[in-house]
Amino acid sequence: MSTTTLERPLRTETPTPARRTARRRATLHWIGVHSLGTAAALFFVLPFVFLLLTSLMSDRQALTSDLVPHTWEWGNYVKVFRTPGFLGWWRNSLMYAGLGTVLTVLSSVPVAYALAKFRFRGRNLSLLLVISMMMLPPQVVIIPMYLFWSKQLDLTGTLWPLIIPLAFGDAFSIFLLRQFLLTIPDEYLDAAKVDGCGDFRTLIRIVLPMARPGIAAIALFQFFALWNDYFGPQIYASENPAAWTLSYGLESFKGAHQTNWNLTMAATVLVMAPVILVFFFAQKAFVEGVTLTGVKG
Amino acid sequence: MTTHTLRAKRTRGALRTAAFMSPWLIGFSVFFAYPLISTVYFSFMKYDGFGAPVFNGLDNWTYVFTDYPNFWPAMRNTLWLVVVMVICRVAFGLGIGLLITKIKSGTGVFRTLFYLPYLAPPVAATLGFVFLLNPGTGPVNEILGSLGLPTPDWFTDPATSKPALTILAVWGIGDLMVIFMAALLDVPKEQYEAAELDGASSWQRFRFVTLPNISPIVLFAVVTGVIQAMQYYTQPLVAGKVASGVIGNSGQPFEPGFPDKSTLTLPQLVYNLGFQRFDYGSAAVTALVLFVLAMAFTALLMRRRGGLLQAGD
């Protein structure tokens, strides 16, 4: 201990050769780390680049192994939009993801609030069940659910069997938001109570404004999850192409354009684009949300 | 009088809780409890969607475990994915997390680039990878070939279809990167400084300072990875469909697992039995197998992370 304190001031006054090797080592370290980073970045980005390039090739060239388009066929994107059904899939995806997200937030906020801030018997059991639901693959309950929506309510061939349940809370959103609400100190809620605020007013006036980042995170997650959902539309909407979403319709687009990789890749880019655009506008909320799922207990 | 107001207060409290919890109470009963019980019921019934279900004892169970040709291949594939895919994802995610904490210039750009593939919609990403890895004209084999490296058949060869899916899964590592990055930045700096003073090499610092500090997060990543591997559905199904060329209209039959059952996973069995073979009873059996496995690993996750539940108090 004492030797180190003695050594330290000495070390900073060491002559230049030693300092130079230290600096050289730091530079080498910098170069090493950044070349590794660039290599990793290429691995993550090149697939996107190849998809974009292919989506701009002519029909003929897309069948060859050339990597860069000879002529830039921006018209491919117009062709994709003109494909019968494609615009309808866009509309359906937007309705499913948009309306579904609104319903999820509205129904999950009060539940998450109660689980985070109320004291009641069965609270831990409820939380346990929420987590179990969250971990449950959708295929586990699909047989009775499908029979319920098709035989009792005759709603298959539409997206309603997927949208309606979201009005009754979504386990993942409830859990994530509850984790966020735990970070709001009880003093704020007590102060509101002293001022004569009822539970509902406290939720609206005090909790919601403070929970905005958490709500933004669950809204984003849910929007993406619904936009990407394949299994749900496959089960409930496959019988009626007019109800397909982009994620479900995309592979049949490939089927209809068997050899036209360029058009298929253009359609693929169009399915990815909205998600990536939303991400750029809401990057912070999103990354915060991912951290919340894993790190904060 | 005091007991009276106390009771009134308690009733009001219970009503308040019930009101706030009501969306989920309904959702839980209608979309979880009822269908789960019903799935158990169907697993003992012969039912094809028409007429009435007929009790057939354990027939569905013995059929799935002994005669259904897709069950054991799907179990083996799931085990493969749990071992190889989960290890690859966690190791790679940790590596990328470490790398991003070391990068000093342009950190934001690197982080965004590393994160982006995680957002790619699974169907679109899978379709993209089937193209990138297509044996004939795909860019990846084109590059491998020009470097004199072997050019596998990827999604069309049973030996390489799961490795190809693993590459796709490793590409979308963004979630793990963010989680590991946050954990790595939380490791107390003093511990590194102390280790450095003791002359620890960078590997020793990683082994004896970093790893013990982040081990709960590594465990979390492994267990959630296992749960995800058991739910793995869209990517293997779409990859098989697109690579086989049998895709498109709902009317076209497609036996999942192409090539040669190598991409079959448990959730696909529920679809295959229930919605392609209309054997709802056997489909319910596979659904329950999936349920038991998912719940077992969830229990493991929660036992290790008791904080998940207690943090409220």
Automatic annotation (TrEMBL), chain A:
It is a multi-pass membrane protein. SUPFAM superfamilies: MetI-like. PROSITE patterns: ABC_TM1. GO terms for biological process: transmembrane transport. GO terms for cellular component: plasma membrane. Residues 1-19 have a biased composition (Low complexity). The chain crosses the membrane at residues 28-53, 94-115, 127-147, 159-181, 202-227, 261-282. InterPro entries: MetI-like, MetI-like_sf. Residues 1-20 are annotated as: Disordered. Coiled coil: none annotated. It is found in: Cell membrane. Residues 90-282 form the ABC transmembrane type-1 domain. Keywords: Cell membrane, Membrane, Sugar transport, Transmembrane, Transmembrane helix, Transport. PANTHER family: ABC TRANSPORTER PERMEASE PROTEIN MG189-RELATED, ABC TRANSPORTER PERMEASE PROTEIN MG189-RELATED-RELATED. Belongs to the binding-protein-dependent transport system permease family. This is Multiple sugar transport system permease protein. It comes from Streptomyces candidus. The lineage of its organism: Bacteria, Bacillati, Actinomycetota, Actinomycetes, Kitasatosporales.
TrEMBL record, chain B:
Its main location: membrane. The chain crosses the membrane at residues 21-44, 79-101, 113-133, 164-185, 206-227, 280-301. It is a multi-pass membrane protein. GO terms for biological process: transmembrane transport. It comes from Streptomyces candidus. Belongs to the binding-protein-dependent transport system permease family. Keywords: Cell membrane, Membrane, Sugar transport, Transmembrane, Transmembrane helix, Transport. This is Multiple sugar transport system permease protein. The lineage of its organism: Bacteria, Bacillati, Actinomycetota, Actinomycetes, Kitasatosporales.
